[in-house]
Specification:
The chain has 98 residues and is mainly α. It folds into two domains: 37 residues, no CATH class; 56 residues. It contains five helices and no strands. Helix 4 crosses helix 5. It is globular. The protein starts with a helix and ends with a helix. It comes from Cucumis melo var. makuwa. It holds the Pfam family Retrotran_gag_2. This is Retrovirus-related Pol polyprotein from transposon TNT 1-94.
């Protein structure tokens, strides 16, 4: 199970991210390293997700289904971002008004 999870994570990382965590030998170690690298960079991540979503263009070198899958992934990430921002706004509103 450990190897399958480790492999699934590795297969879904971009090359530049993979270079950052390739020295980790366990799934737990890799996950902790990813959290350390990316969890606290919230504002730049939001800007990055938003930019990728709004500038998406189909790649003529890919199949239509591959482009569609990439767009679905971006849409999902953007929806999560919007939900997170909405939750933060609600918390902020309630904490200042009640």
């Amino acid at each position: 199970m450990e190897n399958a999870v480790y492999g699934a994570i590795v297969l879904n990382l971009s090359d530049n991210v993979l270079r950052e965590v390739i020295g980790e030998e366990t799934t737990y170690g890799m996950w902790k390293k990813l959290e350390e690298l990316y969890q606290h960079k919230d504002l730049p991540n939001r800007a990055f997700v938003r930019e990728r979503f709004f500038t998406f263009k189909m790649d003529d070198n890919k199949l239509v289904i591959e482009n569609l899958e990439e767009f679905k992934k971006l849409s999902s990430e953007f929806k999560e971002l919007r939900d997170k921002i909405g939750d933060e706004k609600n918390r902020s509103f309630y904490s200042t008004h009640f």
